[in-house]
């Protein structure tokens, strides 16, 4: 790979680069006529093959007419969480470091699934893109505002198909929101109240974390250097890995990064037209500390009138005891099985207020919607809703068809990078426990040097710098 721009290790360089970067156009989808095929199938390598990545891999692999899995890579391969994948694909080459996989097999791979912790999405995806590979990346897109920006630019530069894994964006809710927006049924939105009030992994520490966990014996199956990727070094601990990474500012994007892509995707794409906020505020914050996310807080973001939308306020509520007041007439439909109590994979407990949002219009109409592919209904109204186009292919099949040049990807980076950047701004407010003003045109925080450094994220560890160089 050749690079023409060094990694921006100082604030001045970072801000100068953002000032020079024009906003990427918000297009309805990502389409690439270039497809790499083996017997008509997309040759797919999995970077991450346990937990959520295993779920994604199964969904992709079930499309046997489109997909051929050719390699498995996981930094902890042969650990218990990867055994199902190894049993399903016993003869495939196995790797712990995606760089080695590409060194040995780049010419045998057309596309990759990146299903790793938040902090390691960027390097794996950028490596693949610069080799001309299509990429399916789990949400949130990346760990920092800058990483999202660079991936969006790379998608355009290299012309590959890119898809973020907010699978509900290929569901009925996508078509309903799109059609209602285009028909003027959803219009003049003034406020969006969103919430995810389930228990999170870091709640067990009660907001009293005072240090990183003590070093523990490294499992023989785990390549800790590859797991860390470009992120700051800390000694291995089971309280940093195995899903616990989501708790820590250095490795995860917290509750909003985890669930925002399932709750706010259509609102951001259509009503807000991909805009970034001009102000971020934080309130109701409990358990603030410099290591892990608060146990509760409310984020409020301001989107001033622009294009087709007027002034819009977006609220994000998280924490078991930090719940917004529901509007009159609010009620739940059954979502049995979607959020089971005591979910072993994520420590979730189903509360009275389920993950979702309420959308307030200037005419008094209020829309209520749950997470993922759940459709909207009018609060307090039994009036029949207009018809809308129903969902077609799954998010995974849509990606594979896009790789073959037969569909447009539903969640390309030009759409999902700005959405993920909103989550990154929210994380900065949570980390600092203060709000700030933001300039969307220049992509800088106004008058706050510390917040601007957090836009960039930490300098990459030695050996990982090249991924942040453009070209």
SSE order and pairing:
Elements: H1 11-20, E1 42-47, H2 51-61, E2 67-73, H3 83-88, E3 94-95, H4 98-105, E4 111-114, H5 121-130, E5 134-137, H6 145-158, E6 162-164, H7 172-183, E7 189-196, H8 224-228, H9 254-263, H10 265-271, E8 279-286, E9 296-303, E10 312-318, E11 356-361, E12 366-370, E13 377-378, H11 395-403, H12 413-432, E14 436-439, E15 444-445, H13 449-456
Parallel strand pairs: 1-2, 1-4, 2-3, 4-5, 5-6, 7-10
Antiparallel strand pairs: 7-11, 8-9, 8-14, 9-10, 11-12, 12-13, 14-15
Helix pairs in contact: 5-6, 6-12, 7-10, 9-12
What this model shows, in words?
- Strand 14 and strand 15 form a beta hairpin.
- With 471 residues, this protein is of the alpha/beta class.
- The chain has a domain of 178 residues: NAD(P)-binding Rossmann-like Domain (Rossmann fold).
- The longest helix is centred in the C-terminal third of the chain and has 20 residues.
- The chain contains 13 helices and 15 strands.
- Helix content is 28%, strand content 16%.
- The strands form two sheets. A nine-stranded mixed β-sheet has the order 13-12-11-7-10-9-8-14-15. A six-stranded parallel β-sheet has the order 3-2-1-4-5-6, with helices on both faces.
- It is globular and about 60 Å long.
- The N terminus is likely disordered.
